Write the structure tokens for this entry.
Amino acid sequence: MTEHVQTQQSDHTHFARVVRSHYPGLVALFTAVLIISNVAAGKGVAFFGDAEWALGPLQILPIITDGAFFLFPLAYIVGDVLSEVYGFAATRRAVYYGFGAVALAALCFWIAQQLPPADFYENQPAFEAVLGVVPRLLLAGLAGYLVGQLLNSYVLVRIKEITKEKHLWARLIGSTVVGEFADTLIFCAIAAGVIGITTWADFVNYVVVGFLWKTLVEIVVMPVTYAVIAYVKRREPTYAE
């Protein structure tokens, strides 16, 4: 009888059930933003390039940044949503996924760069210039991202343990201040020589301006972050206030 039941069951096609949750979609967005950011960051950007204005050692104008300046804050916003709704363990898992995806993308770009170009392919120098992997920059980006994102999530969750469901603004800003500062400081400390920073004044300027910009963006888009968090909480059946 048992063998008959097992045979009967094996005749059916089986699939795993997809559990309803916004978590996979947020992790996918989080990972995509990180991969795109690491490619776009290869372009140097200068706003108000003809202007010069300094406040002591701090250069205000021109504003020097990279092509991913508008994407990195988005990664922290998605990280805030993950931390607020799903907790530190789930966010840490997402950070590891993102870390692995960025490392894999860098490896694939490097392999593609080493492949012999076809006779008709004339864009090898451009391909290498845009997608070529600079080991020190890769290390700086991965280290800053890993430490910054984990600190961002940890601080947000710790503040939430104290404030419960109140004062969301405090944990969003508090976690961003810690996470973004650590991310910017670690990246610049490792990559300074590669990106052309040779003096302490330039180093301090890069860290301070980058940190202030990312923190300001977090504050400006906070109403959007509030709305997204509220939306996800209402639609997660396992979320318990």
Remarks:
- The mean pLDDT is 84.
- The first helix runs from residue 2 to 10.
- The radius of gyration is 22 Å.
- Residues 20 and 236 are 8 Å apart (CA to CA).
